């Protein structure tokens, strides 16, 4: 990349009036800060470009737009003519997905080169140290299921869920890379390095299990859940053929044998990992309800213990989590109950934010209305602020 430097020239007439001036340090010429391998065709759109990831399909950069907002820019490594068309067709679905648990896609095009501009998230499930606590893992999966439930209601299935495309922004999990698996499957440049078989459902690797559908996402989310609570994959083998064989013919080691604490959610995980699609949860709503039941029980226990110990910060954490779970499940009566509890435990400016949120939940409850996404997002921000002061989970 060539640094841009503006140099002004003076006419002869102008130079006659130039007076000597003291020598002072001059600021360095303004330059566009670009990663050396960032495509020059996009250089005019961004500054402060930094390579933050590279996989079999694409490079990912953190960049700043002209309006000052920070975004992620994904550049596919190679697309032929056929997959270029598929790229636009599939990505169009992602552009219309607007949900707190789905990474926002701001822009996508194949000109001047194929690229995606999306919401920047600072981390991913892949980067987390595993195993996680069972509560933390269940809460992450609950929120991912929330985003997938929304997508499925639009008739959109992900097909390629794995820790590297479940991103984290301020602690909130967000699903990324919608439609890219189909684009990748149509590319003649696809290699084994681009393909992740460990999370594939039986019906994705063998036709005898039927045609993949929304329940394939349930399987894949079950694999991610298994990995979060055990630190291992349920079908990890030495080569691709062995992986496919184990997915289609073998049963996974029960999670509790690898982590005894996982016993509480073992039935949920193993239901997701049933090879026959009819034996799995039949919808994300059904899967999410099981998670909500578990989380509700654990958070109520935590809240009760916190009150007994007179630990208001801990009580605020659990009351906030309960409020969020019930808000996302559409149970405004219970959400309002725990929002009211949270008002008691929250302090300072946070207390005022909770009071306003609680009042808005109450109004919607009385009018028989559902909670809009903006309300849920506001609740998410409040709970995240509380979580920052509560690190012991």
Automatic annotation (TrEMBL):
Classification lineage: Archaea, Methanobacteriati, Methanobacteriota, Thermococci, Thermococcales
Q: Does the keyword Transferase apply?
A: yes
UniProt keyword Flavoprotein, yes or no: no
Q: What is this protein called?
A: Serine/threonine protein kinase
Q: Which residues form the Protein kinase domain?
A: 46-295
Q: Where is the composition biased (Low complexity)?
A: 1-18
Which GO MF terms are attached to this record? ATP binding; protein serine/threonine kinase activity
**What keywords are assigned to this protein?**
ATP-binding, Kinase, Nucleotide-binding, Serine/threonine-protein kinase, Transferase
Region of interest: Disordered: 1-24
This protein's source sits in the domain of life called Archaea
Q: Which GO terms of the cellular component aspect does the record hold?
A: cytoplasm
Q: Known InterPro entries for this protein?
A: Atg1-like, Kinase-like_dom_sf, Prot_kinase_dom, Protein_kinase_ATP_BS, Ser/Thr_kinase_AS
């Amino acid at each position: 990349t060539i640094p841009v430097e503006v140099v002004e020239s003076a006419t002869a007439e102008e130079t006659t009036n130039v007076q000597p001036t003291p020598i002072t340090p001059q600021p360095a010429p303004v330059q566009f800060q670009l990663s050396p391998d960032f495509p020059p065709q996009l250089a005019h759109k961004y500054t402060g470009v930094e390579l933050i990831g590279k996989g079999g399909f694409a490079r990912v950069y953190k960049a700043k737009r002209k309006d000052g907002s920070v975004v992620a820019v994904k550049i596919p490594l190679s697309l032929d003519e056929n997959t270029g068309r598929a790229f636009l067709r599939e990505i169009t679905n992602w552009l219309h997905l607007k949900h707190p648990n789905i990474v926002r896609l701001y822009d996508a095009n194949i000109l001047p080169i194929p690229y995606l501009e999306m919401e920047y998230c600072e981390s991913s499930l892949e980067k987390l140290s595993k195993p996680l606590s069972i509560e933390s893992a269940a809460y992450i999966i609950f929120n991912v299921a929330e985003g997938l439930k929304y997508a499925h209601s639009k008739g959109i299935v992900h097909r390629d869920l794995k820790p590297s495309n479940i991103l984290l922004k301020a602690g909130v999990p967000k699903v990324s890379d919608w439609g890219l698996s189909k684009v990748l499957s149509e590319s003649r440049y696809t290699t084994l390095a681009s393909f992740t078989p460990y999370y594939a459902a039986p019906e994705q690797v063998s036709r005898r299990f039927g045609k993949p559908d929304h329940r394939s996402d349930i399987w894949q989310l079950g694999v991610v859940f298994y990995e979060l609570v055990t630190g291992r994959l349920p079908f990890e083998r030495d080569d691709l053929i062995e992986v496919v064989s184990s997915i289609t013919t073998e049963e996974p080691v029960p999670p509790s044998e690898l982590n005894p604490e996982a016993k509480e959610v073992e039935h949920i995980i193993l239901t997701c990992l049933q090879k026959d699609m009819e034996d799995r949860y039949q919808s994300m709503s059904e899967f999410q309800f099981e998670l909500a039941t578990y989380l509700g029980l654990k958070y109520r226990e935590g809240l009760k213990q916190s009150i007994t110990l007179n630990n208001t910060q801990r009580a605020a954490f659990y009351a906030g989590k309960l409020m969020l779970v019930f808000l996302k499940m559409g149970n405004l009566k219970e959400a309002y109950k725990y929002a009211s509890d949270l008002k008691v435990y929250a302090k300072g400016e946070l207390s005022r934010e909770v009071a306003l949120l609680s009042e808005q939940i109450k109004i919607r409850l009385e009018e028989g209305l559902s909670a809009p996404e903006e309300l849920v997002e506001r609740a998410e921000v409040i709970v995240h602020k509380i979580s920052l002061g509560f690190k012991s989970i």
